[in-house]
Amino acid sequence: AQSVAQPEDQVNVAEGNPLTVKCTYSVSGNPYLFWYVQYPNRGLQFLLKYITGDNLVKGSYGFEAEFNKSQTSFHLKKPSALVSDSALYFCAVLDMEYGNKLVFGAGTILRVKS
Amino acid sequence: DTAVSQTPKYLVTQMGNDKSIKCEQNLGHDTMYWYKQDSKKFLKIMFSYNNKELIINETVPNRFSPKSPDKAHLNLHINSLELGDSAVYFCASSHPSSDRAGSETQYFGPGTRLLVL
Q1: Does B42 contact chain A (CB < 8 Å)?
Q2: What is the chain B residue with the closest CA to A89?
Q3: Helices (H) and strands (E) in chain B, counts
């Protein structure tokens, strides 16, 4: 079964500093990996995805993620954090065995302090 | 011009009642989904429909019945509501074909916050 793990419940970072939100995956076959963000009382917004190609994927709001096959990781990064980046971040893998369902990690709360 | 919309946004009801949540997408997608987010923010698939046909039916009580009148709509009807049904329900949509660029991405609605008292 496809799964992802987000080892950190919360990440704290100062505004202007680089941020990393970690995700590791366990899949059979080639992974289709995603990052979504959820702001308070809002829906999920798609940030970026890795399907194939370059290991460094660029997405919305200045975020990027690096696919690392040897470490089975897909960490989300941003060079300079903003207070407005504070939100709940979900890593997900697409399970295509029976239909296309997203299997989500538990989520990581990102807090950016000014 | 909201891409995926859900109504209502909030729903407060008593145990034992029957309620429906509606979802509509104007993205021209063929596949729609319902996900449930529990009190610990954990997200899990419930159902998916492709062009009105049920594709995914996870282990969900049969009190939950999705209905897709057309490929732009996927409604969720819940009978005999229980306290444990309190959650946020998200609708999402995507293209179904894996060979269409971008088809893997699912776009989510704003969620319906259900509270059963």
Answers
A1: yes
A2: B41
A3: 0, 11
**Kind plus residue range of the DSSP H or E element containing A98:** none
CA distances, A52 to each of A34, A43, A65, A97 (Å): 12, 27, 13, 18
Average pLDDT for residues A100-106, to the nearest whole number?
94
Model confidence at B50: pLDDT above 90:
no
Judge if the upstream peptide bond of residue B8 is cis by omega within 30 degrees of 0.
Answer: yes
> pLDDT tens digits for B65-117?
999 999 899 999 999 999 999 999 999 999 865 555 556 899 999 999 999 99
Q: Closest to B98 (Cβ–Cβ): which among A45, A96, A104? A: A96
**Which residues have C-beta within 8 Å of that of residue A31, sequence separation ≥ 6?**
A2, A25, A50, A74, A93
Q: Is B104 on the interface with A (CB under 8 A)?
A: yes
Whether A92 has a pLDDT exceeding 70, the answer reads yes
- Asked if the Cβ–Cβ distance from B45 to A102 is below 8 Å, we say yes
